[in-house]
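Q: Here's a chain of 367 amino acids. Please give me its 3D structure as tokens.
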Amino acid sequence: MVWLLAGKDIGFALARGISVLVISCPCALGLATPVAIMVGNGMGAKNGILFKNAVALENAGKTQIVALDKTGTITKGNFVVQEIVPAGSYSQDELLKTAASCEEASSHPIAVSIMAAANERRLSVEHAKQIKEISGNGILAELSEGTVLCGNRRLLEQNQVDLSAYQPKAYGTEVLLAVDGVYAGYLVISDTVKEDASQAVAAMKQQNIRTVMLTGDAKENAQAVAEKIGIDEVHAKLLPQDKVTELQKIRQKQGSVMFVGDGINDAPVLAGADVGAAMGSGADAAIEAADVVFMTSSMEAIPQSLKIARATGRIAKQNVAFALVIKALVMVFGLLGLANMWMAVFADTGVAVICILNAIRILYKKL
């Protein structure tokens, strides 16, 4: 209409009007972010990393801190009974048999290692009359020999067990036992650190990511593993609810946090993190609560997921900026009557194709 009022013929005015309509079509802007996310998800799947939704991928790209559980995440979870230290009249076999009777129904890696040791010694394991799991501490079981406490030091202390005869070791996880309130001894169990743990932590540091360990294990054990692989900060002897509290403190002080875990006890902190990531070999509850699942259960997947997420975010921003600038520029030309139809088509379809090609670059990014 403006061009008609300016004295131009209807053909010229119609061509310029259609050009402006084509330029204003939001196809390129609509594709800019979704195509980057789609390709980012594809790159993740190619490397055994499942981002459950676009928000998970976006938040992973903003991660500043990676908090890690220890057992099953940093370590393999293949615990082995290294030492049996009985107290009083108990023998090693009797102490191991009692512990196995308590842990028979548990699927925790420590319980599995105790059962394996008992089977290796061909011990006859008793079926407990009653078992009560005390979250983060251990088990209370009713056996023929009496009421048995089997768990960490905190469990026995809470039940007023005299531990004056207990001489702790400086390595491994210790499972303490008490029968009818009397200390009976302990088992020393150790885990194996994953081969790629050090390289994964180093790769995260190259991306300026700070690493933190949140674990229910003893402080000495956690600190030893952290020093071995280069983790920056350690919070040990945490109950499941304590992990959530520590995570909130870390987020307030240091920024967006990804938590990586694999156990049932990790489900609350996985759900409470900015990004919850679970190992594919972990418990179903952890996988369900997580935003990202590492199907390979390899620690290398953690820095890979962050790199994919950051690359996806950068390319999405590039696409949006490119589409806006080109459309705005050509729109000005169109309103001034300087843009013809091929320029309008380029500003719409051409820009959309360029955004797609730009997003495909993620697939060729070296991880």
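Q: Can you summarize the key feature?
A: The radius of gyration is 29 Å.
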